[in-house]
Amino acid sequence: MSEKIFIGVAWPYADGPLHLGHVAGAYLPADIFVRYHRIKGNEVLMVSGSDQHGTPITIKAEQEGKAPSEIATQYHQQFLDSWQKLGISFDLFTTTGTANHAEVAHDIFLTLLDRGYIYKATVSQPYCPHCQRFLADRYVEGTCPYCDSAGARGDQCEQCGKPMNPVELIDPRCRLCAATPQFRDSEHFFLKLTAFEDRLLAWVKQQTHWRPNVLNFTTRYLEQGLKDRAITRDIEWGISVPVDGFENKRIYVWFEAVIGYLSATKEWAKSSGDAEKWRSFWQGDVKSYYFIGKDNIPFHTIIWPAMLMGYDDLNLPYDVPANEFLTIEGRRLSTSRNWAVWLPDYLSRYDPDPLRYLLSINMPETGDTNFSWREFVRRNNDELVATYGNLVHRVLTFVYRSFDGCVPMAGEFDSQSQAVIGMAEDTLNTVDGLLYHCHFKEAMKSAMSLAQETNRYLDDKSPWKIIKQDRQASATALYVAITVLSALSTVLYPFLPFSSQRLHNFLGFDGRVEDDGWQLHVPPPGQRLLSPEPLFSKLDEDLVEEETSRLGGIRCW
Ligand SMILES: [Zn+2]
Ligand SMILES: [Zn+2]
After folding, report:
1. Contact by Cβ (8 Å): 253, 51
2. What's the 151 CA to ligand 1 centre distance in angstroms?
3. What are 215-249's pLDDT values in tens digits?
4. What is the CA(139)–ligand 1 centre distance, in A?
5. Tens of pLDDT along 330-344?
């Protein structure tokens, strides 16, 4: 029976390009999952969008002498381009800058206000007497009280990673003019998280299917006790506060960005011509998955669920398969120090599937993993090219040459051939179960062992050597191999969509892999193959040094 699945993916800040940490943390696993459900024939919707608000964008705009909207639009376009080239197949990738998003955010804000889950209080906020404005947390800098490093920000110290309140900084100063900020009273709205503590804890305890890291982190966080959180700020860039007297304030970005999952679904429904269709992904029998990096866990397992509980009409998350971090050449990724591999850079030089392969087989699912260019080259050359690509190429070129470009007719299967066909069937089942439970790395390994075993089978059977003496035995071995190739194009499709589609066409199938369903599709004898070409190409060892030397240098965009 077909299932209904909603997939929300973290909203990237439109203040800079995407990097491999983003891809490994959220976008690739989400895309593997959505493609898997599509090929299974399930009804699935995957949405996200660029987060256009928040101070990182206004800071970037000030640095570049542009309007925040200009920066946000520029990076939004770049995100769309990256998704297309990497094959991240959103049903909708929108932005938080739409009128629709503001409307949905206002509805949630006012409903929670009406029910007493949002309340007003006066707080002390940093104010720059020289600039004559309140300063958002990131606009205050000073010395970190925890590690003594200079240049810590009012929201976080980058050096030691501690979250910060501006009032904690030693020698605070305005980032714009270096004056010492004062602290002045300002009226703001708060989300009453304390009201949800017991319900959240009871709910989280039932989520035994969550990854242990997500479940443990969330439980600890809740057991330490929640605090109400301010959800408005004295800033100019953001969603307006729909209450009189708050014209100069905005809704804080963390509160409205998560609402994007719902507003994006409504936008998708409207553009499909049935504005009410959003309900089918938010109410009733549908599972909601949120793919995010581990730094985003509390927003998706505590704050967003609390908002949904308060709104009381919409499904809570079913699973939040958050990934851990990806380090780069053994060091923590840092965008400010340019210790990152930028996605547009990667995509301008290499194909998408080798990256998707490496980040799948090395996915930071249960602990941090490392990306290195040496491993990228090694896995491309030794695994993608030598194991999988070579299997495909030697089978298809030989069949194409020796059997008039058509799938040969098999004779009787011996036990060895039966075992290989059985393994192809088993792999379809195993990968199915693993992907269903978001075990991506294991699923990829299982698919690759089928390719390895089939190479061994062919080495044993040597159809290219025996064709002169025993054409039938050669045809049978090749037919078995072709059956495996067909299974591989299915199980690898969620991971490697570009090469899987090509393989599907080389095997003589028209149309899209996705439309053929999750099953063993054996090309019938006599089916005409397409003239085969290599699926992957070998990479030059020299690129390791060239790419590594770019890290930490000056970034030129
Ligand atoms: Zn520090
Ligand atoms: Zn100032």
Report:
1. yes
2. 9
3. 999 999 999 999 998 999 998 899 999 999 999 99
4. 17
5. 999 988 789 999 999
